[in-house]
Amino acid sequence: MFFKFIKYGIVGLSGMIIDFSITWLLKEKLRLNKYIANSCGFTCAASSNYILNRVWTFQSHQKNIPKEYFSFFAIAVIGLLLNNAIIYFLTEKGKLNFYVAKLIAIILVIFWNFTANYLFTFSLK
């Protein structure tokens, strides 16, 4: 399980790059609301992470890919809600920089995402 978590973290790092890039583009260049931009970045990263985790981290052979993806994405949505709540708390109440708060949120939410995906998504039969 330790090596799966390391792989999950590496995939997560690639997702974080996608997430931050899309969030930055939408928030800073297109001037979208920070929560909408964050949600879009998170959604793109979650989709990328599903593919990479399916193939590399968990080496899933699940034939019902839509069911597996839905499970992964549902867990990601819960992670997104946690992510946005943490960002809200840290920026609005803690007065932290948005991107610092986002990094803290990602670090905290990765534990939820890994555990839930390990126990549910990639253990589906």
UniProtKB/TrEMBL annotation:
Kindly list the GO CC terms recorded for this protein.
plasma membrane
List the InterPro entries.
Answer: GtrA_CellWall_Glycosyl (IPR051401), GtrA_DPMS_TM (IPR007267)
**UniProt-annotated location(s):** Membrane
Top-level division of the source organism's lineage: Bacteria
- Keywords of this entry: Membrane, Transmembrane, Transmembrane helix
Any Pfam family matching the protein: GtrA_DPMS_TM
Q: Which residues form the GtrA/DPMS transmembrane domain?
A: 7-122
What's a BP term from Gene Ontology annotated to this protein? polysaccharide biosynthetic process
Membrane topology, as annotated:
Multi-pass membrane protein
| Membrane-crossing residue ranges in chain numbering | 6-26, 69-90, 96-120
Cytoplasm is among the record's keywords: no
By sequence similarity, the record places it as follows: Belongs to the GtrA family.
Give the protein name, as stated in the record: GtrA family protein
Q: Which organism is it from?
A: Arachidicoccus soli
Lineage of source species: Bacteria, Pseudomonadati, Bacteroidota, Chitinophagia, Chitinophagales
